[in-house]
User: What shape does this take?
Amino acid sequence: MDALLLSIASGHQAVAPALLVVAVMIAGGGILGGLSGLALSRLGIRPAARRAGERDG
Amino acid sequence: MIPVHFPVAGVTVDPWLLLFIGFTAGVCGGFFGIGGAFLVTPALNILGFPMACAIGTDLAHITGKSVVSARRHQQLGNLDVKAGMLLAVGTVPGVEAGARAIAWLERSGEIETVVRSTYVLLLAAIGGAILWDWWRHRRRQAGRRGAEPAPYATEGGLAHRVRSLRWKPCVSLPRSGIAAVSVWALIGIAFATGFCAGFLGVGGGFIRMPAMLYLIGMPTRVAVGTDLLEVLLSGAYGTFTYALRGRVDLLAALVMLVGGAVGSHIGAIATDYVVGYRIRLYFALTALASAVAVALKQWGAGQAATVLLLSAGSAVTLAIILGLGAGLARERRRLPDAAA
Assistant: This one.
């Protein structure tokens, strides 16, 4: 695991490992966001029912 | 829990601490529409991460976290994609111009003092102005108890002047409730806020969100959601540049993202329960605490500055969670069937 992480990080000035890091974080955000959203929704933590004509104050 | 070794940063840290930092930054980020770098970078630095690695790892976790927050705000109807894309056109060259100004200042040797002084002045001005606006709004509301609600600062003043500019082409932003605004005005505001972000070396959410409120006149929740799209774009670009130099600890960023993902949902959902002006009040207090922290750092009290920042971040997170809890309880009383 350490060797893999170091090999990704040590690709100095290499575009592919840098893009891989960005892709992993975006995909990680998508997956973890989906899972945590589902878990919170099960716990009853979900958006409010929409209120008509709601303003900013 | 057993401490874990993070090979790229070269430090051994308890992962629960990283989860907590990610969670706190996630709640604040989802609630205010900011990245939260002001909180995470010093915290990682305290834990032993070298500064460049702390910034790179923070940017990577901000990228992932912004995906969660932006998606959640889109579901809540708070994301104005059209405005976000137009603002990005001005933000990118603005950040680049700010970074070049910094490179020019570096040659004069006064960079640290100039940047920190600008940071303190800007944060204090933003925090003070929003606090003043909140106070005026509160007094107006008290005077009109039982009558029509008081008008909002975003319905007049600077935003009104910006919207009355008719430099063609003009666009409508229905999601933000704006009938027509000049594209050049939007790009100009984005360039100015991007310049400040590049100059100060921050993501810029702290500057962009109030600009969307007071210069463009977006509703608070839409400004929060739309700013997160900008944070996502700038975070991804920043992660890429730091990863090119091998300054991103992917494992640490992913651990923080676990806490950040949960926190982002909580922060974003809380905007649905906490009234817009209360969001502005919390934002103003956080900005003022950050200004004091940076001033303390400038005077050589770095440790006190970090303690103040982390305390302010934790206090605001607790206030947001309590606000969400109270809102959920109200909602269940109002709609008992929906809660069942």
About this structure: Residues 51-57 of chain A have pLDDT under 50 and may be disordered.
